[in-house]
């Protein structure tokens, strides 16, 4: 498989503070790759560098054969990158369908808008029933599905999913991840950032563990599941965090 995204020795930060010191990640076409790590490890910062929200201080990122870091955010979207952001960030006063359509304002997606809408609705049947409803009135899980659907409307070559489980009750996390598995079956390449290790491993082919801005471990999902490091550092703490969390429906 050829690498769709290839990140090498990426370094980035905020002002003088270094958040990423050495990140190297490959994502092959058709793969689902997860990036695991605890609070503040650098997962969202990695996403922000990929989308162009913050600049890289060093390193390279090649996406679909092109230098990603040299592109504007707009060019990255045109090249086939789409983000479902942490915290969902849907437009609360727009309807579900208006939110979805907003995801298709790029040259590649515009012509296939109607077909894509149907694809997204068939992946997320809950959105069909709510198509005319204001997004802000939906539950957390539905808003998460909408955020993923909106990113899919762009017809991405690579879908970036930032913490899709965040703030959701365990049952709803299961629903959202079942939907992500459906997206993966449609051969969409996915880079998933997730604190809920169990959920991430239920969908990923491979994963990387990030700690203090550095990749400390990379392995196929089956190996990550068995790994003592992952079990002790993340899977146990998953359960503890989730038990104490309120979690939206
Ligand atoms: N806007 C910001 N300004 C300054 N420092 C930041 C900012 N955002 C993140 N950081 C710092 O960068 C480091 C990496 O944070 P990042 O948000 O990437 O972690 P994360 O792995 O996504 O964790 P979380 O799951 O809590 O979002 C942390 O030390 C964090 O405090």
UniProtKB/TrEMBL annotation:
Residues 5-237 form the ABC transporter domain. It comes from Neoaquamicrobium sediminum. PROSITE patterns: ABC_TRANSPORTER_1, ABC_TRANSPORTER_2. GO terms for molecular function: ATP binding. InterPro entries: AAA+_ATPase, ABC_transporter-like_ATP-bd, ABC_transporter-like_CS, BCAA_Transport_ATP-bd_LivF, P-loop_NTPase. Belongs to the ABC transporter superfamily. The keyword Nucleotide-binding applies. Gene3D superfamilies: P-loop containing nucleotide triphosphate hydrolases (3.40.50.300). The keyword Repeat does not apply. This is ABC transporter ATP-binding protein. Keywords: Amino-acid transport, ATP-binding, Nucleotide-binding, Transport.
């Amino acid at each position: 498989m050829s690498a769709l995204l290839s990140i090498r020795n990426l370094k980035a930060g905020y002002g003088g503070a270094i958040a990423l010191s050495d990140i190297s990640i490959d994502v092959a076409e058709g793969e689902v790759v997860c990036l695991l790590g605890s609070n503040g490890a650098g997962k969202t910062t990695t996403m922000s560098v990929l989308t162009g929200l913050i600049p890289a201080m060093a390193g390279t990122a090649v996406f679909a054969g092109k230098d990603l870091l040299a592109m504007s955010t707009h060019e990255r979207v045109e090249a086939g990158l789409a983000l479902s952001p942490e915290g969902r960030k849907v437009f609360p006063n727009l309807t579900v369908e208006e939110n979805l359509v907003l995801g298709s304002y790029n040259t590649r997606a515009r012509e296939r808008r109607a077909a894509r809408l149907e694809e997204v609705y068939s992946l997320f049947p809950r959105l069909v029933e709510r198509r005319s409803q204001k997004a802000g009135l939906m539950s957390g899980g539905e808003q998460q599905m909408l955020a993923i659907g909106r990113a899919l409307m762009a017809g991405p070559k690579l879908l970036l999913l930032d913490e899709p489980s965040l703030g959701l009750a365990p049952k709803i996390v299961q629903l959202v991840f079942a939907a992500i598995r459906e997206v993966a079956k449609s051969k969409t390449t996915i880079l998933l950032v997730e604190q809920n290790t169990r959920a991430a491993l239920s969908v990923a082919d491979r994963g990387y563990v990030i700690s203090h801005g550095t990749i400390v471990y990379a392995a196929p999902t089956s190996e990550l599941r068995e790994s003592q490091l992952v079990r002790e550092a993340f899977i146990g703490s998953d359960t503890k965090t989730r038990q104490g969390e309120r979690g939206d429906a």
